[in-house]
Design brief:
Pfam families: tRNA-synt_2c, tRNA_SAD
Strand content: 15-25%
GO biological process, one term: alanyl-tRNA aminoacylation
GO molecular function: alanine-tRNA ligase activity; aminoacyl-tRNA deacylase activity; ATP binding; metal ion binding; tRNA binding
Number of strands: 25
Shape: extended
Helix content: 40-55%
Organism: Chlorobaculum parvum
Keywords: Aminoacyl-tRNA synthetase, ATP-binding, Ligase, Metal-binding, Nucleotide-binding, Protein biosynthesis, RNA-binding, tRNA-binding, Zinc
């Protein structure tokens, strides 16, 4: 009670700042049923809520949490970084900005230290919104560069003894916050310009509501969270068509969902399923065997393809980033080439793109085939292709483990593509991976491969039991009640429904071929394994040997220094050539200038010099300005289909004749 006479009782729960809720108790005792009745809970407890900042403020005799020493050092750091002092005013725009920045920095630092990461969905997007809101407020203090990462040290110093995670994760948290700040700052300026243009247009039209389309453009193109646009709009007396914004968001999500569905499911099929037995889910036996006898359950045509469903199959259907199997399905009469396998609900659909009539020994169109009921077939997966795919899939698990070891445990898989030829692995990380880090990751993966550890697959494991085994599971991800666990003891253990090698030594080796960014905070690594990695290394070796032969280097000599020497020589020769060309050009232009027409006491010259670039024309113009006291002119050139124009005027021409080459 902050009233002078302690009479604040009637002010409780009416929004008066003179009374502060310090502590509350929630008695958790009943479970309310659908009919409104209360059923006693088997375990009853009391939930106690006592705010640390509020207790501190009361103990220190402050009227606001922000006036306590919990925030003092943060405000001091903001002052150091921006030159703006905190005055503890409720209404001051700069004080409001400082409170937002300090509070948001605390939230981000603790959340990131606990393993959360900024992202585009769920809690990750909440963190990104918080950070971007703070960045925009920093701009109102005149700071247009990353600054919040410099405040992390203050929290480590003041709270690290109580929360040791802060000190342990300080470097990682600073890097994440800085990368996020810098990323948003690159679009904040242009986004603010677009916002101001929208506002100006609305004022002209007499409207005060920003359309949902414009708000969505700021979100989708410039990374402005809706609440940031709402805040900026309120500052100029505008509001937002939030229903229109949500409509645009829903349309985008629907397009993305349909695109994913088109890629993953069986689409665009003209025919209807012809069932030879009661419809039932396909039994997948491909974890244990690559060949099996099965019964033809259903067929239908789709364009120029035949789609086949068996009662059971060894063919892996595309899912979890792993592509579908290829192979052969044989009946007594036909040999069917399977060139893709996908899921359609609980069915595994085999795509047949070519076929052969075994009786007549000739090729036939898959769509012309007919079958006499639920015939027995022999299904065989392309073994070489499956094994290559398995090498790449298990390699993604090793890569994930190595990235978490080298870069930090904030690394989480965000997507993958596993084919027989290569692998692609997307993961959360806040900056480009350095060549040294990349080398360390690759070395770690190959060092583990050389240990040739066995791979254990645990099927149909209860989710909680999988976690007890140590399987990676991330906040916000959805998992079934029963899962499959792929375990490389001491190296990696993950929930995964894909197929894998029996021993990591079968991978042979991993060679990373590229690293890039695919979205804010998401990096991508592409790599090859086994024979593909060996072929790549041989190709690079042959290229290097060819270069060394051309340079006439000995086996133990390095190509790099020699190539640098040659490039330096070329650069010097290019400079000499340019100087020589310029000298000749100036001699030519000097003669032209001498005979140029003089108008009103100023020499005026024009010259077309095809084949010269803009830089050479500019250098010539600068030299001509010095060859006569009063001269002006225009040089032009047509080079490789491009036109270059350079106007010039000497100082005297500018001063006495008011000639301006820029106009």
């Amino acid at each position: 009670d902050l009233t002078p006479d302690g009479s604040g009782g009637p002010l409780v729960n009416v929004g008066d700042h003179r009374v502060i809720e310090l502590w509350n108790l929630v008695f958790i005792q009943y479970d309310r049923q659908a009919d409104g009745s209360l059923e006693p809970l088997p375990q009853k407890h009391v939930d106690t809520g006592m705010g640390f900042e509020r207790v501190t403020a009361v103990l220190q005799g402050k009227s606001s949490n922000y006036d306590s020493d919990v925030f003092t050092l943060l405000f001091d750091r903001i002052t150091e970084l921006t030159g703006v002092r905190y005055t503890a005013s409720l209404d001051s725009a700069t004080d409001i900005a400082m409170r937002v920045i300090a509070d948001h920095c605390r939230t981000l630092t603790f959340a990131l230290s606990d393993g959360a990461m900024p992202g585009n969905e769920g809690r990750g997007y909440v963190l990104r919104r918080i950070l971007r809101r703070a960045v925009r407020y920093a701009g109102t203090l005149g700071c247009h560069e990353s600054m919040m990462y410099k405040m992390v040290e203050v929290l480590v110093r003041t709270m690290g003894d109580v929360f040791p995670e802060l000190e342990k994760q300080q470097a990682t948290v600073e890097k994440i916050i800085r990368a996020e700040e810098e990323s948003f700052l690159t679009t904040l300026g242009r986004g603010t310009e677009i916002f101001n243009e929208v506002v100006a247009g609305m004022k002209t039209s007499g409207s005060t509501t920003i359309s949902g389309e414009d708000a969505f453009k700021l979100y989708d193109t410039f990374g402005f969270p809706l609440d940031l646009t709402r805040l900026m709009a309120a500052e100029v007396g505008f509001d937002i068509d939030e229903e229109g914004f949500e409509h645009c968001m829903t349309e985008q999500k629907t397009r993305a969902r349909m695109d994913r569905k088109d890629k993953m499911q069986v689409q665009g099929d003209e025919g209807e399923w012809q069932w030879f037995s009661p419809e039932a889910p396909t039994e997948f036996v491909g974890y244990d065997t690559l060949e099996t006898s099965a019964t033809l359950a259903a067929v239908k045509t789709g364009g120029d393809r035949l789609l086949v469903v068996l009662d059971k199959t060894p063919f892996y259907a595309e899912s979890g980033g792993q592509v579908g199997d290829h192979g052969i399905i044989e009946t007594d009469d036909y040999r069917l080439d399977v060139t893709d396998t996908r899921k359609d609900g609980e069915l595994v659909v085999h795509f047949i793109t070519s076929a052969r009539d075994k009786v007549r020994d000739c090729a036939v169109s898959p769509t012309d085939l007919s079958f006499d009921g639920a015939v027995t077939v022999e299904a065989a997966v392309d073994r070489e292709r499956r094994v290559a795919t398995e090498r790449n899939h298990t390699a993604t698990h090793l890569l994930h483990a190595a990235l978490r070891k080298v870069l930090g445990e904030h690394v989480q898989q965000k997507g993958s593509l596993v084919t027989p030829e290569r692998l692609r692995f997307d993961f959360s990380h806040f900056s480009k991976i350095s060549p040294e880090e990349m080398e360390q990751v690759e070395h770690e993966v190959n060092a583990q491969i050389r240990k040739a550890a066995g791979v254990t697959k645990h099927a149909d494991v209860p989710y909680e039991e999988a976690l007890e085994l140590g399987a990676l599971a991330f906040f916000g991800d959805k998992y079934a009640d029963r899962v499959r666990v792929v375990d490389v003891p001491g190296i990696s253990i993950e929930l995964c429904g894909g197929t894998h090698v029996g021993n990591i030594g079968q991978i042979g080796m991993v060679k990373i071929v590229s690293e890039s960014s695919v979205a804010a905070g998401i990096r991508r690594i592409e790599a090859v394994t086994g024979q593909a990695a060996e072929a790549l290394l041989w190709q690079e070796y042959r290229n290097l040997q060819e270069i060394k032969n051309l340079l006439k280097l000995k086996a133990d000599e390095q190509a790099g220094p020699k190539i640098k020497e040659l490039l330096d020589e070329k650069k010097a020769l290019d400079k000499q050539l340019q100087e020589s060309r310029l000298s000749g050009l100036l001699n030519q232009l000097s003669a032209t200038l001498a005979s140029a027409e003089e108008i009103g006491g100023c020499r005026i010259m024009t010259e077309q010099l095809d084949g010269l670039g803009g830089d050479e024309l500019r250098q010539a113009a600068v030299a001509l300005r010095e060859q006569a006291s009063c001269v002006a002119g225009l040089l032009c050139s047509v080079t490789d289909g491009k036109v270059f124009l350079v106007g010039f005027a000497s100082d005297e021409a500018v001063k006495s004749k008011k000639l301006n080459a820029g106009k």
